[in-house]
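Q: Two folds, back to back.
A: First:
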Amino acid sequence: MEPRDLYARAVAKWGQHAVLLKLAEECSELSSATVHWVLGDLKPGPRYDDVLEELADVEIMLEQMRSLGMDWSGVRQRKLDRLARLVGAV
């Protein structure tokens, strides 16, 4: 099954509210995993693997947000432009 179809089915099955709450949960888990990885001196191993797992979960949830019609590409570009200014790339 194509990921786009899978995302749409997930939203249809659990509903928009549940998907939004799951996004918040996955972001929280990514935050926690990242902190534990940093506190573990950023070494490869289980903590690094936890970060990869949570990054994948957050990415999947973001794609589900896109399947709901949310489009943050304009906001993203504005933030990239700001980052470019901050690092002296423009």
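A: Second:
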Amino acid sequence: MTRAMTRTRTRTVLPVLAGAAALLLATGCGMQRDPAGSGSVKQACAGTPAAAVKGQVAKVWTDAGKRLGLKDLKPPATAVCQVDTRKYAKKPPYTIAYASQGPTNSWATEADYFFDREAERRGADVLYASANGDAGTQVGNIQDLLAQHPDALVVQPMGSAVKGQVQQAAAQGVPVVVCTGKLPDDTGGVVSTVGRSYDLQGTLTAEWLAKTIGYSGDIAYLSGIPGVPTSEYQYAAAAKVFAKYPKINAVTRQYTQWSPTQAKKVAASLAVRYPHLKGVWTDSGVSETGIIQAYQAAGKTIPPMTGDSSNAFLRSAAAAGGVRFAQTAYPPEQTATCADTAIDILRGTAVPSVREINSAVYTDAELNRYYRRDCTDNLWVPTSLTPAQAKELKLC
């Protein structure tokens, strides 16, 4: 039995999220690899000046840094350009294969929703397969999806294990969009990578935490799932920042599986083993929720922390009072831009090789601006959902 399940425009219709793809984003550009995935590199650019595109990416970084009072925040050096996609152009209707990480948590469930709604809005059918958070399962899923001869493949990579399948897609002439994730630079066949920059997320939060603790003291790293790009790339960027400050000592790195229950267990251990901990760097608002619970249970002062922007965490922080934090949203709406990018490729429209999503950045000083008391813990904020859509999804 195939793992891939077809979702078509004729299925039960949820409210269409018109305009989800209007997320602010910056375009970057790079080298397009040989479609056969041989690893050779050649230009496939469509005329947008690299300097202009780099400037857009740099603006995302600068704006984010200003929000946290950080200066001179600069993206890593990278080659950029627009990718010429005319060779992929075909007439609609289009069928897009979507190798999702799967609805393993509320963020992923909303991400699937935004992808489906944007594909539906633009008239594309979706072949859907859930990895259920497992890299091995995703490898088989992509093979099943490609056997159904889609026009394009969008993948939320659970790790580098899918490199071979991405190259297989390219060999079949199927353009690939990497969505809310990242694959190694030597992965052939990727036309465009869409998502909030992991380098930005990790750098931004680490610089804020370093500044908040006075560039001195013990910190702990809490990451999500081992091997998953969202965990590993953000951690690598954060570790690079902390390495600049010799008086900051990282005492441990542990994984929370992006589970508040597991995060609470890990944080409870931190509170006992490292009583003088000055800060916790984490990539997840889900994990932050567990940290608050653990320190409250231990009767100890909650250390400053970082993460992405979940209503669950903001509810916990509001109830606890006095929690210092920095949040940088990793919006599930990003997947709508992934769907748009795949469709643009199939229309032969030039696309950036990197689409860097702009999103909200804020601290505990703005808790009341972002916290949605009228909504459930499962909402990721801020959201572009209308009140009617949020109600339909039982989020508010």
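Q: And?
A: The first strand starts at residue 5 and ends at 7.
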